[in-house]
Structure formats: structure tokens, C-alpha cells
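Service request form, structural biology core

Requester: graduate student, group of Dr. S.
Request type: structure prediction, single chain
Budget code: on file
Notes: please return the result as C-alpha cells.

Sequence provided:
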Amino acid sequence: MALGERWQQLAKIASLVDAETLGIELLGRWREPHRRYHDAAHLAQVLDVLDLLEAGPALQLAAWFHDAIYSPHRRDNELRSAALARLRLRRAGLARNALELVVHAVLATATHHAVDTAIAPLIDADLAIFGADPATYKRYADAIRDEYAFVPDESFRSARAVFLRVMLDRPSVFLTPIARARFEFQARQNLREELATLT
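Core staff response, request fulfilled:
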């Protein structure tokens, strides 16, 4: 299903006001030309995994907003995306409890940790690319490097290695049982192999 159709269905379920305008804005953001990985294809994959994890509409909305504002030059993308979600979804009439869950979920994608188990499916969906087949994972890693092309190679390799080690040091990369069963083994292989190429 095309992203536009998915948005329309979700907006109807969430009873959003003026959803078409908001959908156009969000799709425009996800299709910005500077994005190499954090683009509409990534959004579609996150939504697919949320379907697999049977996530509710609040987390689906959080997926639409989690990288709605994205610049590899900044470190506050999630904070700014969460603020955008709060502003736009409040105007769209989203219920307060659902709005708070969306905002907290978007913020949690900055650290890939979920203090609230209700947010765990979004974290897992965001990281699901780790568990892709090796060729797809390689394309992901190359796309990340492309997004950070302005960073000198040595600095990028060092920072990326730290991130990969943090992921591998977790008791499990994924938080939900379904995601662990589906992605964990391949994810650890992919992460270890990339780390080896960096170090």
C-alpha cells in the first residue's frame, strides 16, 4: 500500500482533522533530497514492522513523525520532530493521552531505549534494518555513510564503531519477543561484520 493511502487510513482511525494537509507536509519532509537512508523507504519499513508487531495507531503516528525533521548536521532531530508532532497533532485534534504517547515515543528513538514498554515496538521497528539480509544491510550502512559524507572518514568510523558496540552490548538488540525472534540473530551478525570492517 502506498504511503499516502496508509496515512489516510491511519488519520481516519485517529480521527484527525485536516489530515490531508498534514499528510502532504509529512510526505514532503520524508522525501527531502538530502536524505539517503532516513527517507520514505525507511518510513515504509518502520510501518511494515509495526504492523508485524501489531502496534496501535499512536505508535503508527509516532513512526510518521520520528524522523520528520532530519538533518545529519544536527543532534536534536528527535527533539524537534517530537515538538512538531505535538504541534501538528494537537491542531489535528488527537486525544491528549495518544498525543503524549506519540511525543514520548518519538523522543525515545533518539536513544533507542524504551522506559515504557508501550513504546518498545517503535524502537524495534526503527532498528529492524539491523536484521535484514546482508546485502540490504550493506545498502543501509552505505546510505548512512552517504548522509554523513561531510564527516571525515576517521571520525565517522570511530563514531560508528561506538554506536555498533553499544548495540551489541545490549542484552538483546530488540525489545519485543516478536522482533527478537525475527531479527536478533541476523542483526548481531550484521553488526559484528560491519564493526569488523571499521576496526
